[in-house]
Design brief:
Length: 232
């Protein structure tokens, strides 16, 4: 089991940093720059330093993790249909969509995510990562994957003051999953997280992370999360 739950947070922290720079230009206070220098040990992998500038992605064997470094290929890209931007990953078997008219942009491979959809000014975002856990010791199903992920997350962010992690069973587009809700504060700004865990029945986990800066929810991002679905 690698550290994709943590990588999802890295992309978020990088975006809030960008959001702060953008907001300084317009003299507002939305967004925050955050950098943590914690060594994170998740599952069988040790992740050196969660940083907003760059992230090392290595597997348990020490080799570069090609899965995490997703780029646009013939099977992975964003298309436009009737004002809706659709990211379809036929290799992994899923799609997720958003509307640029809502002020959202999509980037493939941003900070090692497979797809990153965000309001670059506010710092709010949705990202998707996936991981094959079929060979991970002790991880026999999606429930165990979730339990280990939460355990590792708590240990990694203990010093950052992570809140209680609330668990909820959810169903999106006919697919059952698990939702984890929690928050943490960085340099005076509160980050609210919703992370959704889905399994395609082949011991491959999909983590959809929704992040909102501040206390107000973002309905646009809820719509993005609700568009996630598996495809053939």
């Amino acid at each position: 089991m690698k550290k994709y739950l943590i990588l999802a947070l890295v992309s978020t922290l990088a975006l809030t940093s960008c959001g702060q720079k953008e907001e300084k230009k317009t003299d507002t206070t939305t967004g925050t720059k955050t950098e943590t220098n914690t060594t994170v040990k998740t599952g069988t992998t040790e992740t050196p330093k969660i940083s907003t500038s760059s992230t090392d992605t290595t597997t348990a064997t020490g080799s570069a993790d090609a899965t995490a470094k997703t780029s646009t290929t013939a099977t992975t890209g964003i298309t436009e249909e009737n004002g809706v931007s659709i990211f379809k990953n036929t290799e992994k078997g899923y799609e997720i969509s958003f509307k640029k008219a809502d002020g959202l942009d999509g980037q493939v491979g941003f900070q090692n995510t497979e797809i990153f959809i965000a309001d670059m000014k506010k710092g709010n975002s949705v990202s998707v990562l996936s991981e094959d856990y079929s060979r991970a010791p002790g991880i026999v199903d999606a429930e165990k994957y979730f339990e280990e992920s939460v355990k590792n997350l708590k240990a990694a962010l203990k010093e950052q003051g992570i809140s209680e992690i609330k668990r909820e069973d959810v169903t999106i587009n006919g697919t059952k999953g698990i939702k984890a809700t929690y928050s943490m504060s960085t340099q005076g700004s509160k980050l609210n997280f919703e992370q959704y865990f889905f399994d395609n029945g082949k011991k491959q986990a999909f983590i959809v992370t929704k992040t909102v800066v501040g206390d107000n929810d973002d309905a646009r991002l809820t719509s993005v999360v609700n568009s996630f679905k598996f495809i053939k």
